Amino acid sequence: MKRKLILILTLSFGFTIAYSQTVEELYNSRNFHELIKFADKSEDLTKDQLYCVGYAFFQLENDKKAIEMYDKAIAKGLDGDHIYLYKGLSLRYDKQYDRAIDNFKLAISRNPQGQKNYTELANTFYFQSQYDSALVYFYKARELEFELGDPYLKIPNIYHIKENFDKALEEYRISASLINKEDPIYFELLKSIGQLEYTVFKNYEPSIEAYSEMISLTPSNYDMYPKLIKAYYANKNYSEGDSLFQIMKTEYEKGTLSEEYQKYGSVAIDEFEWNGQKVTTYRYFKDAKETLDIMYKIYLLSKDGKSVERTLMTEKTIQLEEDGAKHLLCEREKSGVHHTYPYGWSTDEIDYPSLKKSVILVMNNEMEPSASSNFGVKTDNKKKK
What we know:
- The protein is α+β, with helices and mostly antiparallel strands.
- The chain is built from 17 helices and eight strands.
- The longest helix has 27 residues, at 2-28.
- The protein is elongated.
C-alpha cells in the first residue's frame, strides 16, 4: 500500500515536470492547437502555464475559454499587467466592454508606463464610438515609450471622423513627427495627410509632398501612384503626373499591376468639379492604334456620386490630311447614341489641358456634336440645321 502511494506521488511529480517543459515549448513555438489540450488538466498547471494556455485560446479566437484560463491564473496569484491586458482583450472581443475596461484599468495600475495598456483601453472606447474618452487615453499612450502605433493614427482619425479637419491635419502632422518612419503607421499618416490636403484643403503642393514621400517608402506599391498623379494634375504639373503614368504603363505591360488595373487597363489621372458634380478622367495604358481605340475616358457623376450621367472619350480616327485629326472628342449616351464633336488632335500626344477644356465646353452646351449615330445610322447634325 505504501509502495503504491509512493509510485502515485512519483508519477504525479514527473507528470508536472513534463507539463512544465511541454507548455513552455508549445508556447514558444506557437503551437496553439496542441497547447489548448492542457486545459483539461488545468488544475495541474502553474499560474504562468495557465496564462500560456489562455493565450493559446486567445490566438485561436476562443475568447470565453481564454477568459476562463486567465481567471484561473489570477486565482493562483498571477498579477502582472499582462494578464489583465490579455483578459481585457478577450473580454472586448467577447463584447463585454465594461468588464474589458475594468481589466485594462487594472493593467494600468500594475504598470502605469505600459503604452499597450492605455492604448487598448482607448481602443475599447474608440470601438464604441466614445471618442472623447478614447482621446484621453490615446493622448496619454502617445506620450509613453512606443509599443503600438494606434495612438499616433487614431488621435487624428477621431478628429477626422468628427470632420474637424484642421485639428485632424494638425494631429496627423504631430504624429508623423513623433513616430519612427520605419513603422507602417507612418505610411498611413502620410496617406491621410495627402488625402486631407488634396480633398479638403485643395493644397496640392503639400499633398504632393506627402504622397511623394509615401511612394518613396514603397516604390513598388503601384496602387498608390494614382493619388500622386491626381495631385500633380490638380496642381497642373502634368509632366510629373505623366512620368508616373508611364511607370504604371510599363508595369501594366509586364502584367505586374494589381488585378483591378490589369483588368480594366486604365487609371484615374484627374478629378475636378463641374456645377457641383464630380468629373473623373481615366487614361488607358494601351496605345490607341486602331480606329475607335480610346486613350482617355471622362465620366460625369450624378450629384450623389452614385451613378454616371455622361461618358465622353477620345477616339482614334482615320487621319485624312497630314495636319488632320488623329483623335476626336466623342460621347456615348446610355441609350447607345454616339456623338462626335468638332474637336480633335493631330498627334498621338493629346494635350490634356485642351481635352479638359473641350469637355467643359460640351458639358456647358457650348459645343454641339458635328455628327451623331445610333445603331449604325449616321446623322450629320450640320445638315439637320
